[in-house]
Amino acid sequence: MAFWNWNKEGPGVDPDEPEKGPLGEFFSIYFSKFWRICGLGMMTFIGSLLTIALLYYVGFYLLTMILPTLSYENILAVLKKVNLPYVDGVTVETMSSYFFLASHLVFVLTVFSLGFFTFGPIHVGFTYVYRNFATREPVFLWSDIKDSIVTNWKKGLLHSIISAFVLCLGIYAFYFYNANMPEGILLYVLRAVLIMFIFTIIVMQFYVYQMIVTFDLKLRHIYKNALILTLVKVPSNFFILLLLLIFNFAIPFLAIWGIPSQAVAVIVFALQFSIGMGLSNFLINFFASRGIKKYLIEPYDDNNNGGAQSSVTQKVKERYESEWHYQEDIPQESQHESPTGAPA
User: Fold this and answer.
1) Is 232 within 8 Å of 295 (Cβ atoms)?
2) CA–CA gap between residue 342 and residue 344 (Å, rounded)
3) Sign of CA dihedral 154, 155, 159, 160
4) Which of 128, 136, 188, 232 could hold 213 in an S-S bridge, CB 3.0 to 4.6 Å?
5) 149-171 residue pLDDT tens
6) pLDDT of residue 329
């Protein structure tokens, strides 16, 4: 199967090919590596089953806090009022359970695809490979994943715990203020602040994992850089987040509610499993890699430093060359490096 044939040579890159814009480069890489990205997405899903199972149970509380109208009781009450005809053997209680569980699973997969609730040690391994796909670097699948996990598991684990806690705290705060404060300007201001806070934290996830596998920085410095990239690239970050919500939440949600059928639900989640997971992770890492390169790597180029480089700048330059550029003089069996970066 093309999913797992990682040793097959690709079509290559024409050295005289004109430079593409971001969208052209994205689609060029994505379609040239389509099967590999899909395969990696399936591996991401399988490798994170325990995390997704935990999120599934936690998500029952989170979903009712964010969207209380999607509780089983509310769906059942609405369906009873509408009184739609169902095929023989299907009751209103059965349809209510179907809508509730399917909507809940869509919510769970959306949260997971945004990188908010992941198992960090596993996620850093897959992020390293997604980043190499995005930057057209050679991929040695199992060794790359293993090396990245061994090197970065502590930071990945700590960050996954912090991000999951912040997610639950932000959602609970949103629920608490809505439940305990009267309607008014103060409540609207708090809602706006919380929405901006959650938006910022979500977008920071796009950059944090990739910086963990690219630079040897302390986690607080990674958060600082991620916050800066979130603020300086607000329009593009918002656009990427909107695309992810459309792919992972809006389309599956509308399909499940628009065509209430078990067959439709199976197709929706099969597409999410086979294509959506890989597409979401590749989209995040492609645009994150461009932002990191532009704002954290290129400023240290010789041209920007008048030819003089500090020791830190030289280390970043060496890191850029060794980590982001293929070294042809290295033997084939060792043409990759452990992702232990230099300070940025």
Assistant:
1) yes
2) 6
3) negative
4) 128
5) 999 999 999 999 998 888 888 88
6) 39
C-beta neighbour count of 318 within 10 angstroms: 11
**Which residue shows structure tokens 């990674």?**
222
Q: How far apart are CA 151 and CA 282, in angstroms?
A: 22
Q: Report which of 336, 65, 98, 68 is spatially closest to residue 198, judged by C-alpha positions.
A: 65
Structure tokens at 6: 């990682």
Q: Hey, what are 216's tokens? A: 């040897």
- Whether 35 and 2 have beta carbons less than 8 Å apart is answered as yes
- The residue assigned the tokens 């979130």 is 230
**Residue 190 pLDDT grade (very low, low, confident, very high; cuts 50, 70, 90):** confident
Indicate if the pLDDT at residue 308 is higher than 50.
no
- pTM value surpassing 0.90: no
By percentage, how much of the chain surpasses pLDDT 70? 80
Closest CA to 48 of 130, 117, 106, 129: 117
- CB half-sphere exposure, 251, CA atoms < 13 A: 13
